[in-house]
Amino acid sequence: MNAPTDLISDTLARILADKYAEVRERSAETPLAEMERKARDAGPTRDFTGALCDAVAEGRVGLIAEIKRASPSGGLIRDPFDPAELAKAYEAAGAACLSVLTDGPWFQGSAEDLAAARAACRLPVLRKDFMVDPWQVFEARAMGADCILLILAALSDEQAHELEDIARSLDMSVLAEVHDRRELDRALGLETRLIGVNNRNLKTLVTDLSVSDELVPLIPADRIPVSESGIRTPEDVRRICRDGARCLLVGEHLLRQPDVTAAASALIHAIPG
């Protein structure tokens, strides 16, 4: 189990090196067969893709509101940090879904954060992590996740298809994340309708909304574009919507606000119905 080094570099390479080591260690403690059993014994999933579609159909932005304590680019983002209270606040604002960071070394996240957030609300939840191995997909469902993230920059095509197939067998949604045209072309070879366009370069951590300006219009009408990172203002939302994306993933901006409900609501209602 080794990272595909020809696909990665810089910050992403360091994160993935840690992730492969973590998965080796944790899968030795809980073998694949046991984790798969836990995943298949978990309760029913919530419809992540459907929740986004419903929000857009109702004239709102389909907001995936993120819960994370820290990040490599932003340092400590929120302290005190209460995933359950944040989930309730986002639900009150009208968010369609949640995204919860579960990576520990780089984001100070945990499976417990996801479980607490999901238990506190009715929203579907994305496990935000660096998925590189089938074991993690089963772990995601076992902890309660309704959707997983597949970062094309971190995966070979073979890996991406394998992880997607497992997620679909567990009735989970998949958000395929891209940052350039080549990754978009690869993502369109997957079955998932959800195509995330990350405005942050994971190798340099630089954020630029022009990435969505370029890539969102290239996404076919049968897919659902989701613009991620760097979205802070109602005007940013309107810009992304003009590109053709009515679904957004926003985290750090919301988490730095004293009233996350008001901040999330301002983005959700930034466009007319």
UniProtKB/TrEMBL annotation:
Keyword Lyase: yes
Domain of life: Bacteria
Ranges of residues in domain Indole-3-glycerol phosphate synthase: 12-266
Any one Gene Ontology molecular-function term assigned to this protein's record: indole-3-glycerol-phosphate synthase activity
Alphabetically ordered keywords of this record: Amino-acid biosynthesis, Aromatic amino acid biosynthesis, Decarboxylase, Lyase, Tryptophan biosynthesis
InterPro entries cross-referenced by the UniProt entry: Aldolase_TIM (IPR013785), Indole-3-glycerol_P_synth (IPR045186), Indole-3-glycerol_P_synth_dom (IPR013798), Indole-3-GlycerolPSynthase_CS (IPR001468), RibuloseP-bd_barrel (IPR011060)
Pathway(s) it belongs to: Amino-acid biosynthesis; L-tryptophan biosynthesis; L-tryptophan from chorismate: step 4/5
First-tier enzyme category under EC: lyase
Gene Ontology BP, a term: L-tryptophan biosynthetic process
PROSITE patterns: IGPS
Its EC number(s): 4.1.1.48
Catalytic reaction equation(s): 1-(2-carboxyphenylamino)-1-deoxy-D-ribulose 5-phosphate + H(+) = (1S,2R)-1-C-(indol-3-yl)glycerol 3-phosphate + CO2 + H2O
CDD domains: IGPS (cd00331)
Entries under SUPFAM superfamilies matching the protein: Ribulose-phoshate binding barrel (SSF51366)
Family: Belongs to the TrpC family.
Protein name: Indole-3-glycerol phosphate synthase
Organism from which the protein derives: Falsiroseomonas bella
Gene that this polypeptide is encoded by: trpC
